[in-house]
Amino acid sequence: MIQNSFNDYLQGKVSFNKAKTNFETAIKERYPEITDVKWPD
């Protein structure tokens, strides 16, 4: 899941922040019990 979400970033198609947003959306859709994703600073 993380590989799919960050694929566009690794290919230079989206920003790192957009890739993180894409991952958050995907993880929340697959696991609805997850309501918040915390990233390290």
Q: What do you see in this structure?
A:
The protein has 41 residues and is mainly alpha-helical. It has one domain (1-41). It has 2 helices and no strands. The radius of gyration is 10 Å and the shape is globular. The model has no long low-confidence stretch (mean pLDDT 93).
Strand content: under 5%
Largest pleated sheet: none
Number of helices: 2
Q: How would you describe the shape?
A: globular
**Overall structural domain count:** 1
Class from secondary-structure proportions: mainly alpha
State the separation between the terminal residues, measured CA to CA. 22 Å
Q: Which regions contain 5 or more consecutive residues with pLDDT less than 50?
A: none
How many E-type strands? 0
Helix content: 55-70%
> What order do the SSEs take from the amino end to the carboxyl end, as H and E?
HH
Short synopsis of the structure:
The chain has 41 residues and is mostly helical.
What's the SSE blueprint?
Elements (H helix, E strand, L loop, with lengths): L1 H9 L5 H15 L11
Helix pairs in contact: 1-2
Overview features:
single chain, 41 residues, mainly alpha, 2 helices, globular
